[in-house]
Each structure stands twice: as structure tokens, then as C-alpha cells.
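Write out this protein's structure.
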Amino acid sequence: MRQDRFLWVILFTILVLALAAVGLFLLRQQRLEYGPEDSPQAVLRNYVLALERGDYERAYDYLIAAQGKPDLQHFRQAFLTRQLDLSNVSLQIGEAYPSGEQTVISLVLIRSGGGPFAEVYRESGNAVLAKDAQGRWKIVSMPYPYWSWDWYATPPAKPVPAIP
């Protein structure tokens, strides 16, 4: 009888500790909020946050207005159809390196195979930002999957001749 009580005390203690851990986890979670847009890194952070939240209109506003910019519908569709899939990737924003009228930001993309035992690997990349006519930082380019290869692509000057 005494051993049964001891076992129940141990099980109850484990249950209390597990509930406390879950409670602390839920209390400590922070909802990320958009920050000020006063630096290239802040604009990049807000762009990624907007994509993660599915706020495609806000993310679209961070793209520079230049020839070849996709329209909002194509931009949104690229993410909704998973042509650009952000589910297995995260981004670490690094240092900014001003270069003339543009700023290059070093990035580390952290990719996962998706499974519980899949390898995680890191890949270096760069984002390029520039100021628009109103003096706001806008994204010129980013690595895949935060950016599509055909955005801002310039068409060839002359048609490519067919090979006979």
C-alpha cells in the first residue's frame, strides 16, 4: 500500500512539472510585430514577417517600383501556389554593407528537409535594397524562396534566332 502511494506522488509530480512547462511555453511566446522601417535590415525583417503572416499586400509594398515588377496578383499567387514555398526555410539577417545608392545585406538561409530527422543546412545569400524617390528603403533582390527568379527580369534586346 505504501509503494502505491509513493508511485502516485511521483506520477502527480511529473504531471505538475509537465503542466508547468507547457504553461511557461505558452506564456513566453511573443507575437512578432512590425518594426520601424528606418533601416534596410528593418525593411527586410518586415517583408519576411509580412510573408509569414500572409499579408501579401504589405510585403508587395516593400518591392522596388521598377520595370519587371510583378503585379500584386502574380506576387500573391507565387506564394499561395507554393511556387515560392517558405514552409521549410527561415532567414537570419546579417550585416548591411552600403555600396553607392544600394545596400547589400548578408543573409543566412536555414533550410530543412521537412521531416523530423531531416538534415538542416545553411546557405549564404545577399539581399539588395535601395531608396525610392520618397527616400524609403525598397527591396531590389533577394534569394529564393523569398524572391522569384523572373521578377524584374529584363527581356532580351533582340529576339534569339532559332537554331536550324
